[in-house]
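Incident review: delayed structure delivery

Summary: a single-chain prediction request sat in the queue longer than the usual turnaround. Root cause was a stuck worker, restarted by the on-call engineer. No data loss occurred. The affected request and its eventual output are reproduced below so the record is complete for anyone auditing the incident later.

Affected input:
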Amino acid sequence: MSYAGLHVHTHYSLFDGIATPQEYVDRAVAIGMPAIAITDHGSLSGHREMYRAAKEAGIKPILGIEGYITKDRFDHEDKKDKNDPLDLNYNHLIILAKNAKGLENLNKLNELAWTEGFFKKPRMDWAILEQYKEGLIITSGCLSGYLAKAIEADNLAAAKMHLQWAKNTFGDDYYIEVMPHNPKEINDVILALADEFELKPIVTPDCHHSDPSQAEIQELKLILNTYSNKIEKDATFAGTQKYDNIMDKLDYLYGADRQMSFKNFKIHLLSDEEMHEEMGKQGITRQDMYDNTLEIVDKIEDYNIVDHLDLLPAQYQDPDSELRELAIEGLTAKGLVDKQEYIDRLDEELKIIKDKNFGPYFLVVRNMINWAKKEDIMVGPGRGSAAGSLLCYSLGITDIDPIVHGLLFFRFINPERNDFPDIDTDIQDSRRDEVKDYLVRQYRHVASIATFLSFKDKGVVRDIARVLNIPLPDVNKVMKLVDTWDEYCTSKTTAWFREKYPEIEHYGEQLRGRIRGTGIHAAGVVTSKEPIFKFAPMETRTAPGTKERIPVVAVDMAEAERIGLIKIDALGLKTLSVIQDTVKIIEQREGKKIDLHKINMEDANIYRMLSDGYTK
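Output delivered after worker restart:
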């Protein structure tokens, strides 16, 4: 193998990537590549997944990004209002981390792009790229890169000025990219400039799927994200039946000349032979652009990514003693400290928590809930398995006595497993932000958790049906009959639909499970004793119901826990706000202050009312 793929988009490139990191690793191994990069659009979310998959397969992972670069990250003027054709909202640029320091700098650049530079896309500028250049390799990017745009604009003076700056700034860690789907005239000028400035060229596949078999589902996803509501006039699903090839069907539905399409490009992870063949079609046969990709591979050191770090934000000299002292105080206040059953149960729980080093976590959660209650923010009595913990009850984390109600601690913490406990806390939704602000003030390094939405179940059926313009009445009719993908594929009630529209099952099976979008975890936030970007990628999302962008750790909940980031669940619950308002209104009108904890939970009249159907 004479080259390695250094420009690679996974399905974490939400708009136009389709393959998973594992699929790229499998393809790289199959074609004999010694390494594989990941360079998603504006995102580092797939890094750890790619790192593990590559290491397990015995090839070198190269962690990077296709970043959005602009002249000034604080400039929010739209490109249509600018006169300079090269002064765009952003260009593309490939950045690869050479080592652990480079990866930390890449994480910092990405965080700044999402916070300071976000305007339509997460943008960094040349100034911060220079500031955080240590440990980074830069390549010139695709046709949307600044170099290619300058050549397209016939502005060689700008291209040369840029290359001289890049050479002076990054030295031997700056490379110039050519790729087989660039126009020949662009590649020729790029290579001529590389020689003129004595910069090393590399050939890259700019791949968006792993192998040729994914080309069709790639095009379907691209259309789903760009053209699914722009069907050609008079085009129908019935009209597609005169075509055998799915690409021809899509041309009929959306126009063969649509602006966004990969149908004419080979953008899978090309083998050595395929890359030589494609570049040879342009008469470009020089070997150095292949060899230089392996030079970059040789520069890459191991990133030493580890799991289960100790990132608890609060450091306690003796958390287990403090925990027991607070728990005894709580039992004393509840009049339970003289009951041996409670002391024995508490000691049993504390021993397990000490053995697993969970003490500091309980103190952090206890402090948050204690602060909320002091601020008259209504907190729920307890949810889920945490209600089975006497320690949680004694600390005031929950308000449910697990001994009275026969609740089991081992459903909360299993001694056979090392999973962190999960304490779900309900907060009145009208004041949840105050609780989050408290965490920020107290621990500084706090972020919400990203979620990744996948193509699944009935949504896959609707997505494929929409792209193929399958009649909506038929889709709606069958969707009333099933809930899951498996039901759709096996139910007798959908047999007629599957027989009539076999494309849905064929392409839906390929699409499901892949990422279709991102969101924010409804309750979870993470905290860390150091800036989170040092351990995980940071992005921003628009907070629900607002226009404000808030920081999120750009991995899902499971990955955040695997890293060692401590998740605290604080779910905003509307019901609690209603109850709080109701209690205050009663006090204002009737002069009665109701203590919800002293309400008789076994009042037969209430259960009789509920049984009679008075539930509203």
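Verification: The longest helix spans residues 574-590.
Action items: add queue-age alerting; document worker restart procedure.
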